[in-house]
Amino acid sequence: MPDFEILVTAPINPAVIAALEAQFPVHCLFNQVDPEAFLQSVAPTVRGLVAAGPILANGVSFATDGAFMSGFPNLEIVANIGVGFDNIDTAYAKANNIVVTNTPDVLTDETADLAMALLLATVREIPQADQYLRAGNWLRKPYRLTASLRGRRLGIIGLGRIGKAIAHRAQAFGLEIAYHGRNQQPDVVFAYHATPRALAEACDILMVVAPGGPETRGMVDANVLTALGPDGILINIARGSLVDEAALIAALQNKHILAAGLDVFASEPKVPEELIAMDQVVLLPHVGSGSRATRAAMDQLMVDNLISFASGRGPLTPIF
């Protein structure tokens, strides 16, 4: 498709760039000595952008905001790697008839598996027990008794594809499920709560799965954490922005909640030293979809979206 030029903004997997180059003329922004001059030279002919958040782009990512997109007069599509798209100004895109695609479904099971693994690791203190053994402490006495999943109620903030997959897995562990979202879903049998605080009051595990962005920023705040209670456990696999990180640190330090398992943070890859120092916290480096098979499927879906759109068949997974 020689007339459909693509700009790759972030240093994604070289194999993906090669797959794009087999179909399109491809320009790479991330390896330019003078990015601004390069953009001025290619912007008039670029019709598609490839975007990815920092975790999927080796920590380097250009913000795909309105100011950036406005520099491409013939831009038609932004293809994002990842199910979350808070790295893209979707309001600008929609207002300017620019299609935005993401990569849903192909990462649902992997992320839900990781969420349950993180929950189990947090409740049963699996990393701490591993370190206890490695340090030789088992030779002196057994590891301490831990909390349990038995008799607990799981509250899910964001019952979308991934939230439902987590709920399905959690039911197999005997957990009662409740949820909060923007709207109650008529075909869902789980109890619905209209606010995050109400959900936290009704549960003792809070699983954060909602999308990032301005609407959800800081939605798990000090009041929600207090409502979760001293036996409560917070698990966040969504975006660090959804949780007031300072309030979470205070809640853990003051024993307002029992423990936390975190795969995401407010200023990745920087993690607050206070969290690193805590023994009741399990920390992961944003690896929810981080298996080779799943990342390959995400990459391929991004490429397939561009091919389908450029050939006139329309995008496969548009977000609107």
Provide a brief overview of the structure.
Helices cover 34% and strands 15% of the residues. Strands 8-7-6-9-10-11-12 form a seven-stranded parallel β-sheet, with helices on both faces. A five-stranded parallel β-sheet has the order 2-1-3-4-5. Helix 8 runs parallel beside helix 9.
CATH architecture of the largest domain: 3-Layer(aba) Sandwich
In whole angstroms, how far apart are the ends? 25 Å
| Element pattern in H and E | EHEHEHEHEHHEHEEHEHEHEHEH
CATH topology description of the largest domain: Rossmann fold
Classification by helices and strands:
alpha/beta
List low-pLDDT spans. Answer: none
Largest beta sheet: strand ordering:
8-7-6-9-10-11-12
Rg (C-alpha, Å): 21 Å
Overall number of domains: 2
Q: What is the number of helices?
A: 12
Question: Could you name the CATH class of the largest domain?
Answer: Alpha Beta
Count of strand segments: 12
Provide a descriptive summary of the structure in words.
The protein has helices at residues 14-21, 35-42, 66-69, 90-95, 108-123, 126-134, 161-172, 196-202, 222-228, 245-253, 273-277, 292-310; strands spanning 5-8, 26-28, 46-52, 77-81, 99-101, 153-157, 176-180, 191-192, 205-208, 233-236, 259-262, 281-283. It is of the alpha/beta class and 320 residues long. It has 2 domains: 5-106 and 293-310, Rossmann fold (3-Layer(aba) Sandwich); 108-283, Rossmann fold. The chain has a 7-stranded parallel β-sheet, with helices on both faces. Strands 2-1-3-4-5 form a 5-stranded parallel β-sheet. Helix 5 (108-123) crosses helix 7 (161-172) and helix 8 (196-202) runs parallel beside helix 9.
